[in-house]
Amino acid sequence: MVYVRQTIVVDASRALSRAVCIATRYSAVRRQHGSRDGGPETQVIDFKALQSRLFPLLASAYAFKFVGEWLYTDVMEILAANDYSTFPEAHACTVGLKSLTTSATAVCNALL
């Protein structure tokens, strides 16, 4: 079960990364609200309201990716060494992180 939960954490981080990547690319390309002096329109990503919603999700996507990789390495080392002394900590980490990453990914998809 620890391995399955670790896989769920990695899958949630990938889903969040894809959603944030699409939103960031769209925001960088999309322009709106023409300038007053006749110049080019402002990129959507330049709006502070969007940045305050998008950038924390981008940071979360990276954090979830790194913690998923760390969990994979940790779980594989435990299984390869047949040393289960740290298994309770790995179990607790995967239980909490599975819940955190999947709920954060679901909220992100609802926001975007």
UniProtKB/TrEMBL annotation:
GO terms for biological process: fatty acid beta-oxidation using acyl-CoA oxidase; lipid homeostasis; long-chain fatty acid metabolic process. This is Acyl-CoA oxidase C-alpha1 domain-containing protein. It comes from Ambrosia artemisiifolia. It holds the Pfam family ACOX_C_alpha1. Residues 1-106 form the Acyl-CoA oxidase C-alpha1 domain. One of its GO terms (cellular component) is peroxisome. GO terms for molecular function: acyl-CoA oxidase activity; FAD binding; fatty acid binding.
